[in-house]
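#lab-general

N.A. 3:47 PM
ok so I finally got the sequence cleaned up, no stray characters, all 409 residues accounted for. can someone with queue access submit it? mine expired

B.Y. 3:52 PM
send it over

N.A. 3:53 PM
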Amino acid sequence: EKPVVDAVVQVRPERVEKFALTMKAPGNDLRVTGSVQSFKAPKVNFEIASKGMDLDRLMKFETKAEAAGKAGGTKNGPSSESVDFDAMLEPVRKNGILKKATGVLTVNMAAVRLMNVAISSIQSRMSMRQLVFKLEKFGLGVFGGKVGASGTVNVQGKAPTYSLNVDVSGADLRQAVESQFAPFKNTLVGKGFFKMGVSGKSFNPPAAKANLSGQGNMRVEGARFNTIDIGRVAAEAVNKAMSDVAAKVPELRGKQLAAPKAVESEYESVTGNFTIQQSVFSAPDFFAKALPNRGLDIRGRTSVNLVTDALEADWELRDTYNALNARDMSIKIADQVVPQILAKDGVVVLPVQVRGSVFDPKVTYTSVPEALIRVALDNIKRSAENRAKAEVQKAVQNEAKKLFKGLFK
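B.Y. 4:20 PM
back already:
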């Protein structure tokens, strides 16, 4: 669509008394108003307002596939990794007028549509003083949830520094995956709640990732994993370990897990605190609580390298609801049945390691046999102790009966 733009500027000595711009097009309405006092030490005040902006009707955006095609077919031109964005700010830092400038920018937009993503209620206030920009408040609605933020960017030094606090409440990550903005495509879907505070230095991507640090917490409700089938992983973990376990517990030889063909893993919630340090995202207390009878709980440590996308996780898969039927496995030793041979306190626990990348996770089960052997031997020992106690108790009772019989004969 072709927009119609009208603008009015009233200039007086040493100031712009009035600036007003309107842009109208089908599905689009934009108004920008403002003023500038004193060109030597500018005091800038601008406001952006809109009843609605459908940017998809104004311009054509490249899809990721189109952008990747161009990148693959073109060898000329610098990549973002080779551009020095920090150096590009040098003229700003040296500009005496900009150093003295102060200003306020407010934004109030009812709705924006961009790349098929609907964004609502955009409200923001940003101020500037001595090349320090403050995002005093920011809020919008997207993917069925709300996003709030505040932060600071300081461009005085050779490498700009910044801090940001973000609060995401109730965003539908499945909608994010289905849109062209898909940061969670290869991780989780569900309703997300995130709080995060980060700080960093430099606008150049490699340095920015290396200098980024922060902490926060996450909660995803009604979650599912996109690239890891936890049920399949758990069933494989048990079956691959059985031959090693049987070497220590011969009564288990030849037994295999009769697991359901599909163990759908759905989670009431996925929670965890996390830190970002030296390019590594780390969640040391990651916990995924399965819905009753809909999967296995996951507890453990998860970390992701933000530069290489390398994934490193050490998880315990806890079959709380006996989804694999592994808890029902039993053996018989010397006419004594040992029930729930692989379970500890009624739960089968499988320690697994996940490596590879977030796009291609690789699961290893090397710790599972040792864990199951230890539990099986403990259960056998406990069963033998209980049997011995029962036999001793029975013998004592028999002797007591004889004694009392003798006393009262």
